[in-house]
Fold these 3 entries.
Entry 1:
Amino acid sequence: THTPGFGMAVGQQHCSRCVIAVGVAACLLGIALVVIGAMGPPAVNDVLHEKLLEEVLLSESEGFKIWQNNTWDDAPPHWKTFTFYNYTSVRDFVEHGTTPVLGVEEVGPYAFRKYVVRFNRLVVNDSIYFQEYEYYKFDPEHSAPGVSPDDIIISPNVPFIGALDVMSHQFASHFVDQVLERIMAEVGIRMDHEVVFWNKTVHQLLFGCEDRLMAQLSKLLDLAHLPPVDPFFAGFNPNMTSLVEAAEKTKYNSVNTGLYQESKLLQFQQYQGEKNMNWAWPYPVGGTNGEQFGPNHKRSDVVYAWVAELQRNVEMVYYRDSEYEGIPTISVTNSDKLYASAEEYPPNAQFYQFGPTGVANITSIQPGNPPLFVSNPHFYMADPVYATNFPQFPPDPAKDTIELQIEPALGTVIRAHKVSQVNIQIVPVPKYFPKIPHIM
């Protein structure tokens, strides 16, 4: 749980502007337009249905080839862009508890082209089982001018804050103090603002890095016969290096082919070998990855997207009528349920969302359990209490709203703007950081 009444954004992730399956959708729509002129509406539906099965559902189709491997040059591109909060005045915050937090700047965006290979595929009845190799390459053309993955960002030390949070709940304060004193002596640094915040490159924050504080903490806990912490920070967006690594580190996913029930096209049946996620009680895997929904989509339809970072099915509802390059689309966005507090939406108690509405608690699914929460960028649509510490970053609904544009006949998402912000809760440490405010 998090303490109600405080909000602090530490990192903003934009997973957006990814054009998905445009080639297939545009091809099919072109066929449909020709058929409309020649045959009239009744036959159009039959032809669209046949082409849908041929191009999107079947394993030899162009659509399926794109789904299984988008690494070839002409594949529809998929980008992730990241904007970071860089803390330029951490001493005042740590030593004096200064709020609102004014010494912060947004840096970025940093764009990365996303590549996915779905391999070791096995079709069983109406299911496809596969492993997934996902990797990213920096794309300067779609990034802010002059930025580089080697840029240094000053941000909260996520693994160290997480370790402090876990130890403070499990051990007596004097034991925690002794551990911290030993770590500082071994590493040779003082217990000051440079411990709570760290200087890391964009590449390290996204894709992981070793951390000497966590390495020393792991050794001490091991000597005390206590569960060690991982000295390696996995990063906010792990990047695999090869198919061999992916085969070793990932388990099988499975999705529905849609051959027998089109409305279930590409819906997850299993994620990383699990049919249920271990929240407060078993939570079933489902929804698609947000690139494809069932055909013949209507404004009144409610669809679900499986968001791996949240380990949840996100309910998507009608947002507005839209178009992409002349193609009429129906836009959907997440419903209010995602970020609702358990008080407003009781089923969210299974995700431990007991604070004010506006954030999704992902603490329990993170390595080391750092107190991490996800929200809309700039706390858009959240309880005002979260944004009070960052008045310099007002939300912009046009940029801070999730929007998936669905071509309704096929159910294909031809443009996706997926945005979220990662936040960490920081609390005072009585002996060393007594003036740090309870803040997120």
Entry 2:
Amino acid sequence: MRPALILLVAGVLTIAEAWRYQVCVENNVDYWGADLRNFIAKNFNHCASECARDSAKGCRSITYHKGSRRCYLKHTPFGATYKKSQSLLKSANLDCDKFSKLPSWPADFKWAFAGPPKGYTCVKIWEAASPAAHTWNDNFMCWRNDRADPGFRWSMAGAIPGQRCTQIIEGAEPVKYTWRDNFLCVQYNSPYHLSWTFSNALKDRELAAGKACIQWLEGADPHTWRDNYLCNKPYNGAYVSNSLPSWPEDFKWSNAGVPRGYSCDRIWELATPAKYTWKDNFFCWRNNKAAPGIRFNMNGAV
């Protein structure tokens, strides 16, 4: 994270929903790209307030032209490219005091069945054996991209060793589509304790137990994917005090499972013959460091 001067724009921005945002302002800086929309603002405060109002639509930062008063709303912190020495521009990140805070459940999470939504970081949820017509290749479980990484990882071939995993199953799926070995995993020390339901009755039981549930919907799959939910106790995201791992000393490659003292992402290729043993290969970082957000995908760029 780049250091930024912490300033309060007009004290603290407040909108109708009574949300409060702390805005980190950088003068003579352009957060270029990653635009949601642009318009002529009354002033810088108006520009920042509009981003706050569009937060649910993915607004995470702004760039304001001091001459023309044009306001650019962005869907990523710092935009796509960070440019200094831009004397006519002023930029700011919204809600920047929460960059090192884990996403709250369920408020900061979102399910997407048509690609990653703007303003979010996601883990891809798919099953290679599912027919293309069921369109699982564009399904994602997401969290706000101005929050710390919650460490969610997907596996379509059994629970990931060394992690706490929740089975994601839909009993109506034909066996040949292999949905019975799919898991969503977190590290053992994760504050998220996920549970899965595949009927409204089970979802109601989770709600009665005090959990909050997010629906996983894939309308193109005919096998009752309209009553499936991922649940967790309501959680107010805590600040992550650990620093990110340093390169290369805090990272490690393992070709024989998860090494002790490390958190890992599994690196493998489903089409590789089992005799080549890629299934126990992991790229790892020390488990006393913050999650670096590394995820492997065997089906193209995420």
Entry 3:
Amino acid sequence: VLSPSLPPSLPGPGLPSPPGRLPCPRPRPPLMALQALLYGRGRLSILDQLQLPHRRHYRPVDGVSAAWTDIAAMRVRGAPAIAIVGCLSLAVELHHREDMDKEALASFALESLDYLVTARPTAVNMARAAQDLTQFIQLEVKRPDTTAGDFKENVICRIEAMLEKDISDNRSIGSHGAQHILSTATTDKVTILTHCNTGSLATAGYGTALGVIRSLWALGRLEHVYCTETRPYNQGARLTAYELTYEQIPATLITDSMAAVAMKEKHITAVVVGADRIAANGDTANKVGTYQLAIVALHHHIPFYVAAPSQSCDLSLDSGHNIPVEERPANELTHVNGVHVAAPGVGVWNPAFDITPHSLITGAIITEFGVHRPQDLQEVLTEKKLHIS
């Protein structure tokens, strides 16, 4: 998001663009309590999520290499935020490059995008953003009327436009999801169970599944939220609980293993989670633990929703069997704050994600375009011309 202290230095509305340059409207700062990133032309900082909730520290990101490291280390996480930070890091580095012709700038940008995709392979948003930017760069560098300065400006503006679109998409997801949940609820106010962190800390702003919760709260129709701690990185305990308490949304933290009894005894209206990648048939990769939540929700006849932008949908994959699942280091399970808590010598399996079959998504998949049955997702997105083969 744009920080008031970091002026973006973009052309004002109504000002003509120089020859060879595309229109570049000024992004609007979003209205939100927490900001996962601060961006101004040539400058980027991220909120170091490894230090939350004890300390709010914005860490400078001076270029692509720093962004790759921060993404891999999970200082910034969440599929939409990974894509935004990765691309903005390229914008920052391009802004400071003065000694290259446009062909060299294009080569640097394309190599950087390929590198950023490798930081965390399961989350598809970075790959989709890289694909979009690659096509734009390949066309832009061939324009005969474009100078190196024009090329750099046009690519940076293209990246900056992603900020506003992500926030707008999240607000649409929140509205669509809230209205659908309320349309089937049997009570005036609803109680939601969620997993991991899908709020403003996981996106450019507002959130996906947590955006649905925010929308319900804004409507005065939210009774309570139950958030899982989300082991082993505790994104629910550290981040979701932090966002909810920061905005004074009534919430209760539970361990991952309490989800079944919570569904049995706490009058849960719906389970709403996010997604890092959704296959064409609706199978969904999300933070490990999501699959078991879907199974338990089915047993208790509680609708299970997945909220994600269309950028998280990968129609090139027929099913979740083809989604690569990242495995994280063993010490994330065996250590807490650097202290070894597991029995020495025990083996560790630490997948970061699991795959929820589309048959268990009994509520819907919520995107910025609306609320979709999993079996309708591919047709809807294809009609919107979002499929990139």
